[in-house]
Design brief:
The complex is a heterodimer.
Chain A: E1 4-9, E2 12-17, E3 40-46, H1 50-54, H2 56-66, E4 72-78, H3 92-101, E5 105-108, H4 119-129, H5 132-136
Parallel strand pairs in A: 3-4, 4-5
Antiparallel strand pairs in A: 1-2
Chain B: H1 2-7, E1 9-10, E2 12-15, H2 19-27, E3 35-38, E4 50-51, H3 53-62, E5 77-80, E6 86-89, H4 92-97, E7 101-102, E8 105-106, E9 110-117, E10 134-135, E11 141-142, H5 146-153, E12 162-172, E13 181-184, H6 189-194, H7 200-214, H8 219-225, H9 233-241, H10 245-254, H11 264-277, E14 287-290, H12 295-308, E15 312-314, E16 319-321, E17 330-334, E18 339-342, E19 344-348, E20 359-366, E21 386-391, E22 408-413, E23 425-432, H13 437-451, E24 458-466, E25 474-478, E26 481-486, H14 498-511, E27 534-535
Parallel strand pairs in B: 1-18, 2-3, 2-19, 3-15, 12-21, 19-26
Antiparallel strand pairs in B: 4-10, 5-6, 7-8, 9-24, 11-14, 12-13, 12-14, 16-17, 17-18, 20-23, 20-24, 21-22, 22-23, 25-26
Classes of the chains: A alpha/beta, B alpha+beta.
Chain lengths: 159, 537
């Protein structure tokens, strides 16, 4: 399902279509259709769970295999709020080094305290707009049929 | 984690992610029912999947057999998934050698699969395996189809990119001077009049036929055809309209019938559907095709809706049925001996019926774009991504020996379908299986290349045969629970609305009278899904 968010990066407004993986990642059953035309992929692990960090390599492989070769990859360490209670299992440096090895940007966030939550999106958009070849192959081609007719009021969003 | 699957009784366990089950997942996605959706394959779409070349190679190895011989083996290994949960997986070796399993039985729907690769495929442009997405059972969807209405009313259409199906062509061998040719079928009044290839007298005849078909359900026209409803359409066209052969071939091609002897009743309905679909969703086209592999894409969107609605998804997970338990529920064994319970087990029939027809399919990747076929003839018409070429019965140079002959259809897909890289096309050829069909499909492919005078190389070919299960869904009570088995996909080249009835039937079964039919697939946009509802800046 495609929530759209507006986001300003360097003074310019962008509209983001964000695909929720809806739990299909739980048994690694994301359908290939998720990756179609994606300009950026944000992969998130839990900094308090070593295993979830280790699994990131497989997810990078899957994203690279299915997404546009130019798509921007971004690694996020989540649950930063757990650090205060001594819950950190993966260091910032480990995350950073792994992201660099994968050619991805990196940051740590907390959804609970809202720390850094916007940053991955801003940085991903910033990277995407620097790749004109990525934007050129836009998600919806001009050849797609618009279902905008008579009683069928809403039309597929293309931006 | 696997244990947690066995803690509750699922309202339904669905096995197989073909179109029917996936539409059912979509239909249940707002119901708060507990849904577990599994597939024995490691890809979505079951019999209607779209596969990368790597997947095609493995699939062809698994479906190379003529007969249904091997029993599935039960060797499984466990591995851990990302959250450290134990998940059963078949070993790699096994994945390549065992046939695909669904609900414990071997599917016999597909067989005789063979892959051919050009010896210099890479040199001639064959790209990396994932650059391709070959549909196992490609179908065009007429704009009049109820499937499109359901995708709109359920809001799922927003995630599918629909492309136009363009012209229909009829192949003719031609004479020695002109050689083989493709004649475009005119499909509207304006089109008939502007076509120069048809002489004026034939135009009048053709107009009479089209007018008759548009109105065929009226009492006046019914009196003309109803008493002979079961005779072949082609005979009727000759007797009633004195239609000459090339026009008759054009009319028959519009039916997309794989059986040259389609009845008058079915033929009229098919042509009527064709003619009344034109212009419905935009000028100049009568059917659509979902980008990236057709029906498979709709199946994936249905599954995704199911997941958003809280359903649990597992691929690569064969299931076998155990005895009903004390409370009359169905017990199912997943790989790894995990046992789960449900009151409604939904699966698909895997055993082909002995009375069903079998069709032969040839899928070819060609390093040519066939641009002239994708021209448009109506103002404002979108550039199509799919065109249809019909080879009427007996039209190919050397099929005279294979009596009685049947027609062959080729769907030419441009790279706009996302099924191949730019500069290439995927051609899907289909015919009823005959002893000669593998050879005839190759002949048709060569004839198509010759008629378009394309200097093309065939880079990759996949041949296989497809049968069907019985055509009705099977409902079997098990204790207080129910097993519901969808029929396998129909062999038609256009999506058949009949298969939607079974989806609604299964939906009613799971909803247990909590619903009225009017509510089927009628959803509002999900919160947070509409444009700009949450500006975050």
């Amino acid at each position: 399902m495609i929530p759209t968010k507006k986001l300003a990066v360097r003074g310019k407004a962008y509209k983001l279509n964000i695909f929720d993986t809806a739990g299909q990642e739980r048994f690694r059953t994301l359908s290939t259709s998720y990756y179609r035309g994606a300009h950026g992929v944000i992969l998130v692990y839990d900094i308090s769970n070593k295993k979830s960090f280790v699994s990131m390599e497989k997810w990078f492989d899957e994203a690279r295999m299915n997404a546009n070769p130019d798509a921007v990859l971004y690694l996020v360490g989540s649950k930063l709020d757990k650090v205060a209670a001594g819950g950190r299992a993966v260091s910032y440096e480990q995350g950073k080094a792994f992201a660099e090895a994968q050619g991805a940007e990196f940051c740590e966030i907390s959804s609970k305290t809202r720390e850094n939550v916007k940053r991955p999106f801003v940085e991903v958009v910033d990277k995407i707009v620097q790749k004109p070849q990525l934007i050129a192959g836009a998600t919806h081609s001009s050849k797609a049929i618009d279902f905008n007719m008579g009683s069928l009021t809403s039309s597929p969003c293309s931006c | 984690m696997m244990e947690s699957l066995s803690e509750e009784t699922w309202d339904t366990v669905m096995c197989g992610t073909g179109l029917s089950q996936s539409l059912l997942a979509l239909a249940l996605s707002r119901s708060n029912k507990r849904v577990l959706h599994l597939d024995a394959n490691d890809f979505y779409g079951e019999h209607e999947a779209a596969l990368s070349l790597q997947e095609v190679d493995a699939w062809a190895r698994a479906h190379a057999d003529t007969e249904d011989t091997n029993q599935p083996s039960n060797r499984h290994v466990s591995s851990e998934n990302d959250a450290g949960e134990t998940v059963a997986k078949r070993t790699d070796e096994e994945k390549q050698t065992t046939p695909l399993i669904s609900s414990g039985t071997r599917s016999s729907i597909f067989r005789n699969a063979q892959v051919w690769r050009h010896p210099d495929a890479d040199g001639r442009g064959l790209s990396f395996p994932r650059a391709y997405s070959l549909a196992l059972a490609p179908q065009v969807i007429y704009t009049k189809s109820k499937l499109l209405l359901q995708l709109v009313s359920s809001r799922a259409y927003k995630q599918v990119e629909f492309l136009a199906v363009g012209s229909f062509f009829v192949y003719s061998e031609g004479d020695i001077a002109s050689g083989p040719a493709l004649a475009r079928i005119p499909n509207s009044r304006e089109d008939v009049f502007s076509t120069q290839s048809i002489p004026a007298r034939s135009k009048r005849t053709l107009m009479k036929v089209l007018k008759f078909v548009i109105d065929y359900e009226s009492d006046e026209q019914k009196s003309v055809w109803q008493h002979q409803a079961d005779k072949p359409l082609s005979e009727f066209l000759v007797e009633n309209f004195k239609l000459e052969q090339n026009l008759r071939d054009s009319i028959l091609a519009m039916t997309l019938t794989l059986d040259g002897n389609i009845t008058l009743k079915d033929g009229l309905a098919a042509i009527h559907r064709h003619l009344t679909s034109i212009g419905l969703f935009g000028p100049g086209f009568c059917a659509v095709y979902p980008k990236w592999g057709g029906i498979s894409e709709i199946a994936q969107v249905g599954c995704r809706a199911g997941a958003v609605g809280g359903g649990t998804y597992m691929l690569n997970t064969p299931v076998s049925m155990g005895e009903p338990n004390d409370s009359g529920e169905i017990t199912l064994k997943l790989a790894n001996e995990v046992s789960i319970r449900t009151t409604a087990f939904i699966t698909s029939q895997q055993i082909c019926s002995t009375t069903s027809h079998t069709i032969s399919r040839l899928v070819a990747i060609v390093n040519e774009t066939f641009q002239s076929l994708f021209e448009t003839f109506t103002e404002g018409a979108p550039t199509p991504a799919v065109v249809v070429v019909a080879f009427p019965s007996g039209s190919l140079p050397d099929d005279a020996q294979a009596e009685p002959t049947v027609p062959i259809y080729a769907f030419v897909h441009s790279s706009d379908t996302g099924e191949c890289p730019a500069g290439q096309s995927v051609i899907y050829l289909t015919m009823q299986t005959t002893p000669q069909s593998s050879h005839l499909l190759d002949t048709a492919l060569a004839a198509l290349l010759q008629a378009t005078t394309a200097p093309a190389d065939v880079l990759y070919k996949l041949y296989y045969e497809q049968a069907t299960s019985s055509r009705q869904p099977l409902t079997t009570p098990q204790g207080s629970a129910t097993v519901f088995e969808f029929p396998s996909p129909p062999l038609s080249l256009a999506f058949d609305d009949g298969s939607l009835d079974a989806v609604q039937e299964a939906w009613k079964l799971i909803m247990k009278g909590e619903v009225i039919d009017d509510a089927f697939m009628q959803f509002e946009d999900r919160e947070g899904m509409s444009d700009d509802d949450d500006v975050y800046d």
